[in-house]
Structures are given as C-alpha cells and as structure tokens.
Amino acid sequence: MEILEFFIFLSLLCMSAYFSATESAFFSISQLRLKKMADEGDNRAADILFVLKDKQRVLISLLLGNCIVNVSSTAIATTFILNFVAKSVWFGQSIFGNSTNVGIALASFIMTIVLLLFGEIVPKTIAIFNAVRFARMAVVPLKFLLL
Question: What's the CA gap between 23 and 125, in Å, rounded?
C-alpha cells in the first residue's frame, strides 16, 4: 500500500470511529445534565442541545457519513489486498478460485473485523463511558456535517 493510500485509509478509519462514537455519545447523554451545563454558561453544551433538537437529522447524517467512510475504506483495503494477492505465489491459484476471488474474500473478512473493532465497538464503548466529554469535542465538526 502506498503511503498516501495508507494515510487515506487511516483517516477513513478514524472518521468511522468518529461517526460511531458521536452517535453513541449524543444518544446516551443526559439531556438534564446538558441543560444544567448550558445554564451555567457552557457554550458547547448549548451547541449539543441545539444539534439534538433534530435527532433524526443527526442520526441520518452520522449513519450516512459512517456508511460512506466504511465503504471507501473497504475499497482502498480491497485494492491493496488484491495487489498483494496477485503478487503472491501461494494465492495465485487455489481451491478457492483465482486470486481475485481470494483477494476479495480476504479483504471482506479483514475489513469486517477491522471495522467492527476499530470503527464500531471500541469507539462506541469509549464514547458511552465518556459521553459528555466526547460530545463536547464532537459537536464542533458535527455542526458542519449535518445534512
């Protein structure tokens, strides 16, 4: 994988983590706590409350963004893995078919695990346990990403 492709892949994986964690943080956060923080002058809490006035819009934007970055990261990983498999003598011809079939199956398997762990489970777990702190950081870019 070229350096540029690798950094694009990592950036997309980080964006997937952002979208997943933001979804969990925003939808697990206490509205009462946010209102109290906003009343005490916390501008970020006020921004979160403003964004959450239209929860459907927030959810659609986060899910669409996550879908786009997950498909894009999988496409980049598949390209890399297909190039690797095509150069590999072991994968050239196998009982699974030609190298393209093996590469696609391998990419699907690897990306399922990578996206589940680093794009869903870990970010969501961290965000749920730190909902307010994460939401305060995530609200700034989210305001620009809302559809």
Answer: 11
Among candidate residues 147, 134, 117, the one with its CA nearest the CA of residue 29: 134
Alpha-carbon distance 119 to 39, whole Å? 34
The helix/strand/coil state of 30 is coil
Q: pTM for this one?
A: 0.87
Burial of 26 (0-12, 13-18, 19+ CB in 10 A): buried
Residue in 122, 19, 113, 24 with CA at minimum distance from that of residue 74? 113
Residue range 23-50: average pLDDT? Answer: 95
- Name every residue whose Cβ is closer than 8 Å to that of residue 66 and which is 6 or more positions away in sequence: 16, 19, 20, 23, 119
Q: What is the CA radius of gyration of the chain?
A: 19
